[in-house]
Amino acid sequence: MADPQEVLARRVQSALGAAFGSEYADADPVIRPSQFADFQANVALALAKQLRRSPRDAAAAIVEHLDVSDVCREVEISGPGFINLTLRDEWIADRVQDLLSDERLGTPVQERQNIPIDYSAPNVAKEMHVGHLRTTVVGDALARTLEFLGHHVIRQNHIGDWGTPFGMLIEHLLEVGEDSADAALLKSDPNAFYQAARAKFDGDEDFATRARRRVVALQSGDAETLRLWHDLIELSKIYFNRIYDRLDVTLTDDDLAGESTYNDMLGPICDELSEKGLAVVSDGALCVFLDGFTGREGKPVPLIIRKSDGGYGYATTDLATIKYRVEQLKADRIVYVIGAPQSLHLRMVYETARQAGWLGDAEPIHVQIGNVLGSDGKILRTRSGAPIRLMALLDEAVERASAVVAETRPELDEQTRAAIARDVGIGAVKYADLSIAHDTEYVFDFDRMLALNGNTGPYLQYAVARIRSIFRRGGLDPAQATGPVLVTEPAERALALRLLGFGPTVVQVGDTLEPHRLCAYLFDLAQAFTAFYEACPVLKAERDDVRASRLALTAATLSTLVKGLDLLGVRAPEQM
RNA sequence: GCGCCUGUAGCUCAGUGGAUAGAGCACCGGACUUCUAAUCCGACGGUCGCAGGUUCGAAUCCUGCCAGGCGCGCCA
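Output (structure tokens, whole complex):
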């Protein structure tokens, strides 16, 4: 067990049992990182009243029964009753030594859960925008992290591939020709295609009529219409996959589970909800009304599962996703990485599913994605007010990174520089999305996300590049840097202690579904490494054993940073 | 009107009910014959929106208020 907090928690619990009786042995020992020691146990203050003793008395009793001599160098009662715990240097060194031969870097394998993750969800024949970027990047990081923790992750890309706009889109595709340049726009600039179709729909009455008729044909399964519809989706998939490739996202065609895949479930869902008395007709629409959901003037908010024209909306489809994921995918947790504004809608969907008895023991979780804002504090758009094209935005990030690389590394060949610029530019954008709490809005700023200082992708990538440079210079293989690890210098100690935090952090990210905690950890680790790098020569260490130890610390930092970035979906280039 | 979210340093953001609330940027002062100075060190900077409450202890939990954002019946 490498996690100091966990080790100390168990020891303190034993002491609690010994000091106050077995009924206290499972009390939370409240171990926290401390500014006065490595950790502090605050349990004495929490239990003092219950024990009818002063907090310092309680702390003294705990310390008296506390057996940590192998782990801690110093145990001290401080202030009103804090127990300050300082780890032994050798204990820290031994734990880092363990990490060197542990491919999981101290991360436990958890009991396997089935976890469908719904993320990305772009629309066919529509440009992805920065909102899609964020759900894609965050969802992908969660998928990678949960998989690493041992879970069975089922990626679900709930693309918008059904609905009334398809009449207009299909009709437009038919007019321009499936092999035309206009149709090819779907692969590169889908909004241009969509807007052309829209313009015809709004301006041409005959076209609009044909489009409406086409929707009916689509819904009734007309073969030729379905073929065209399928074409649209194929062309759009090319666009999606271009974006996913560029972004280094793990989504593939196998993960596509668009709205249309649930079509057959929608009617039966409405029937079942009606039979169960959950759904009633109101103003011609089939609705579910739930207690506690009221809107304007106290009127109950309906979840409309069948529109008055007989069509189905997204509420029904979302209900279908729950049913499918519970019944077919055997989900334990169902993760929806979706915009924060849909919170009310999703709560109603979850509650409806629960009342219908579809949820079982599965837990649906909404990972709320906050809006991405421009520097003006409003939803990010171009100066003309149009949504920003995602590919153009990614290109700009790479271009900016490219300019910096050209300036700072002129000696590298063009191909190498381009590869670095690509990793840094894309990594910067992704990391910016990941490093901020997913449910808050954040201000998009190229200059800040590409900065080499601060909690940025490039800063972490640079730390990795410097480490690799050390091994390159020394003609050494990180895998051969096996120590033994010695901890003497303060910077060595601080770095070693940080290294022990990786596993616990990954576990926390899996529990809370908050990737920004991993970012904060990695940033902290990189800072500790940089301080170490400044203070402790590695290759030029004056003694062989010190050199071997520092190489081992450096190698452990390398694998931790690379693994952490990998879980986030951020590449770490060989050099920068 | 109801509901959800947010309010922390000039700016962008962290912050597990624990001691003196942190980081990056910006500003100021230092550090390159050195494993990548694109990196580091230091200083400056706070009535944690306001007011109550719970608690031994509150940025954190509860209530009210203020400000901003978003949502609230046939788009998704």
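The radius of gyration of chain A is 28 Å.
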